[in-house]
């Protein structure tokens, strides 16, 4: 992977040092010695750590934005069995090298490399996106990641975070940081629905939900009782919460596990009153 000076402006330099990747031993060609697009390869052990952090498997489509010599998507296909890999790289020399590396690794039927500006790339099909860019570029890319990727997609960045978007997990690989974010479903808005029991009981509810990345909160009413839910945790399209509150004069605990699909909410709610547990089916719509 590489850091492109497309994002840093024009570099005035008297010499350029090209750092060699480890996939091939070929000497750099003149087309790689381009002061406008130098890159820094991610070490192989960090590549492995990033793919492990993303839990890449056989059903995954992996996009590497700023793919350099192609090592990450090649490794995803070769060693993790990824269904497909796409590398996005602005430097045509590196795209050529990536294609050669893919052929050598025997995965050219499952990976491809696109010469393109990553901000112009449609990566909405990706289930995993990997990055080794810069903090400023990560922040500029963040809205596109959140809007274009499906809930549950994973984003992994080598070395650099995403500002105030707290990672879901951070690991160290040979003293280098790798960060994981799981794209949350958008849940902000007003939800109305019912809690239904097996005995036929139906309890109406209304929730006004607010969201900051993978964290949400809500206020509303259940059967006419005002509630406040300050901590709702989102993991992809699913959210969970546990809440204690007095309901009709009785202390109760509520556990909710639900899934959000666009404007529909489905799941279960367990209500514990100290002596018994009652399970409700939860359904709702966003207005």
3D architecture notes:
- The chain is an alpha+beta fold and 287 residues long.
- The protein folds into 2 domains: 44-182, Vaccinia Virus protein VP39 (Rossmann fold); 189-286, Quinohemoprotein amine dehydrogenase alpha subunit, domain 2 (Lipocalin).
- The protein has 4 helices and 15 strands.
- The protein has helices spanning 44-53, 71-80, 92-105, 135-148; strands spanning 61-65, 84-89, 111-115, 128-131, 154-158, 169-173, 176-182, 189-197, 202-212, 215-222, 225-235, 238-247, 250-261, 264-272, 277-286.
- The protein has an 8-stranded antiparallel β-barrel. A 7-stranded mixed sheet has the order 3-2-1-4-5-7-6, covered by helices on one side.
- The longest helix has 14 residues, at 92-105.
- It is elongated.
- The two termini are 43 Å apart.
- InterPro entries: FAM173A/B, Methyltransf_25, SAM-dependent_MTases_sf.
- Residues 1-26 form the signal peptide.
- Residues 62-131 form the Methyltransferase domain.
């Amino acid at each position: 992977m590489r850091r492109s000076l497309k994002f840093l402006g024009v570099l005035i330099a008297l010499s350029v040092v090209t750092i060699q990747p480890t996939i091939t031993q070929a000497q750099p060609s003149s087309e790689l010695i381009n002061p406008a697009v130098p890159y820094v390869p991610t070490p192989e052990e960090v590549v492995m750590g990033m793919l492990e952090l993303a839990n890449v498997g056989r059903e995954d489509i992996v996009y590497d934005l700023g793919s350099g010599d192609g090592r990450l998507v090649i490794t995803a296909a070769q060693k993790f069995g990824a269904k497909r890999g796409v590398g996005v790289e602005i430097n045509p020399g590196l795209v050529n090298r990536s294609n050669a590396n893919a052929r050598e690794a025997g995965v050219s039927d499952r990976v491809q490399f696109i010469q393109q500006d990553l901000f112009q790339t449609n990566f909405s099909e990706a289930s995993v996106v990997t990055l080794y860019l810069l903090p400023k570029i990560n922040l500029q890319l963040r809205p596109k990641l959140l809007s274009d990727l499906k809930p549950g997609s994973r984003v992994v960045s080598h070395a650099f975070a995403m500002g105030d978007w707290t990672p879901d997990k951070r690991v160290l690989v040979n003293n280098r940081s790798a960060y994981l974010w799981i794209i949350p479903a958008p849940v902000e808005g007003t939800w109305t629905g019912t809690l239904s029991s097996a005995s036929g009981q139906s309890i109406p509810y209304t929730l006004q939900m607010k969201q900051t990345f993978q964290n949400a909160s809500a206020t509303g009413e259940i059967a006419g009782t005002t509630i406040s839910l300050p901590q709702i945790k989102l993991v992809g399209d699913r959210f969970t919460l546990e809440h204690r509150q007095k309901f009709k004069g009785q202390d109760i605990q509520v556990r909710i596990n639900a899934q959000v699909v666009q404007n529909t909410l489905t799941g279960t709610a367990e209500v514990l009153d100290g002596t018994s547990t009652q399970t409700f089916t939860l359904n709702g719509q966003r207005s």
